[in-house]
Each structure stands twice: as structure tokens, then as C-alpha cells.
Amino acid sequence: MRNWNGKYSLVRFLHAVPDGEEVDIYINGTPFYKGLEFTEFSPYVYIPEGNYTVTVYLEDTRENPIVTQSINVKVNELVTIAIVGDGKNIELIPVVEETEIVSGNNSKVRVVHLSPNAPAVNIAVDGQEIFSNVKYKDITEYIPLPARTYAVNVNEAVTNKQLLQNQVTINPGRIYTFYAVGNMPNAEVIQSLDGATFMK
Predict the structure, then answer these.
(1) Which CATH number is 66's domain given?
(2) Could you count the other beta carbons within 10 Å of the beta carbon of residue 93?
(3) Are 32 and 21 contacting, i.e. CB atoms less than 8 angstroms apart?
(4) Averaged over 15-28, what is the pLDDT?
(5) Which pLDDT value is given to residue 5?
């Protein structure tokens, strides 16, 4: 595991509440990021290890937070903290990222299911199933994939009905997390490069 910066970790946020308004994020009462939009990631920021109180407000407000939650940040981690929910029951889900880069022509990929009203799904690339029965709030393990362009199908796990279809390009030496966000039938998949991809 690579050491990012002494006793620090790198943390960012993802706004994954469907149709949610822009939000302001505070950590221990200090502004962290302002005006985060649905499907937007904040930049990675170094944070010392420790326990933090994260409070999320609608933009330009400081009353009636939509969520207040304690988050533990461990040393030398890369973490995306997803703001998730159905608009009423909002919570924060830490998504800890891989810290080892990939060599050769391979990459690593995984899926995080954050679509509140979507069923459990199976995910196939070029007709081969790579993840099965992925439920809301599930975070899959990483798997290796050779770098190239794939046809991706997202199917309902029980009926195998196709829900989404797309093409994605996987580049060599990258670490990807695919976040399923939004409500059906307008759910979408965000192809995100994890932070270790950018670390030297």
C-alpha cells in the first residue's frame, strides 16, 4: 500500500441523491465544499485520520441539515463518501478505494449500486456476467479487466430484463468504480476513475 502523506487520507464526496438540490458540506462545522450537484464529485482533499462529524445542508442554508453523520477516516485511505437516499432518508456511505495501481494492459473495475428504486441487478460485459445480484447500497469487489471497449448490459437479477445498455472504454493501468445513480427509468451509470489512478 502506498503512503499518501504521513497520517493523512484522501477524501472526496459524491452527490447521489436522485433529483437532489445542490448541497453544502461541512466537516466538524468547517465548510468543506459548497454547491455540490447531483452526480458531481468534490475534489480529493487530504484529511488527518480520526472521527469527524459530517453535516450536509441545502446550498446556502445552515438550518435543518439533510444529514448529520459521524465518519471515521483511517490512515492512508482513499475514500469517496457518497450522499445517498430517496430524498427523505439520506445517509452517507463511505466507499473505500483500491490503493494499488495496476500494471500492464489490465485495469480494475467494480460497481456501487446507489439507485434507490432500482432492483438487484446482474452486470455483463460482451455477454459475460461479471457481477451478479448487486443490490441497492452494495459495493462489489474489484475485478481485473483487460483494457478495451466493452458492451455493457445491466439486467434485473430476478427476471433478467435489460435495464441499461451502454459501451464503456477501459484504459490500461486504471482503477474504475462505476456508480449507478438516479431513479428508474432515468437511472444512469457514472464511470469514475479512483484516486489511486492519479497518484505517482
Answers:
(1) 2.60.40.10
(2) 18
(3) no
(4) 96
(5) 57
Mean pLDDT of 5-31: 93
Q: Closest Cα to residue 128, out of 147, 155, 106?
A: 155
Position of cell 468547517?
Answer: 30
pLDDT tens-place string over residues 48-82: 999 999 999 999 999 999 999 999 999 989 999 99
C-alpha cell at 188: 444512469
Distance CA(5)–CA(105), nearest Å, equals 28
* pLDDT of res. 1: 40
- Please give the model's pTM, rounded to 2 decimal places: 0.94
Residues 32 and 90 in one domain: yes
* Residue 2 in domain: no
Q: Specify the amino acid at residue 124.
A: A
Mean pLDDT computed over 89-94: 96
Cell numbers placing 153: 448490459
Whether 1 is in a domain gets the answer no
Give the structural domain span for 92.
8-96
Q: What is the pLDDT of residue 106?
A: 93
One domain for residues 47 and 19: yes
Are 31 and 60 in contact by the 8 Å Cβ rule? The answer is no
CB 71 within 8 A of CB 56: no
Strands (E), the chain: 8-15, 23-27, 30-36, 45-48, 50-58, 67-73, 78-85, 90-96, 106-113, 121-125, 128-134, 143-146, 148-156, 162-170, 175-181, 188-193
Which amino acid belongs to residue 131? F
pLDDT digits (tens, 9 = 90+) for 122-141: 999 999 999 999 999 999 99
| R_g of the chain, CA atoms, integer Å | 17
